[in-house]
Design a protein that fits this description.
The C terminus is likely disordered. This protein has four helices and no strands. The protein has one domain. It has 85 residues and is mostly helical.
C-alpha cells in the first residue's frame, strides 16, 4: 500500500513534459481546425502568428544532419510541418 502511495506522489510531483512530437501535433491540430472553419475571422491573425512561432521553434529544435534526434520527433516530420507554413 505504501509503495502505491509513493508512486502516486512521485507522479504528481514530476513536472509536465512536452515532446517535439507533441508540439508538432499542435501545429497539425491548428491546420485541421483552420481547414474546417474552426476559427472566426478576427482570430485568424493570432492563430496564424502562434502557428508560425511554433513552426520556427520546431525547426530550431530539430536535430541537424548527423545529430542524434532529441525526443521522438523524426527530422522528416519537422520539415513536413514547416513546409505547410
Amino acid at each position: 500500500m505504501t509503495e502505491e502511495v509513493n508512486a502516486v506522489e512521485t507522479a504528481e510531483t514530476e513536472a509536465p513534459q512536452l515532446s517535439l512530437q507533441d508540439i508538432a501535433t499542435m501545429v497539425q491540430i491548428i491546420d485541421v481546425c483552420s481547414k474546417r472553419g474552426g476559427f472566426e475571422g478576427q482570430e485568424l491573425e493570432a492563430v496564424g502568428s502562434l502557428r508560425n512561432r511554433v513552426v520556427k521553434f520546431l525547426n530550431a529544435a530539430a536535430p541537424k544532419d548527423g545529430e542524434t534526434p532529441e525526443g521522438d520527433l523524426p527530422t522528416e516530420e519537422v520539415e513536413e510541418v514547416s513546409a505547410e507554413a
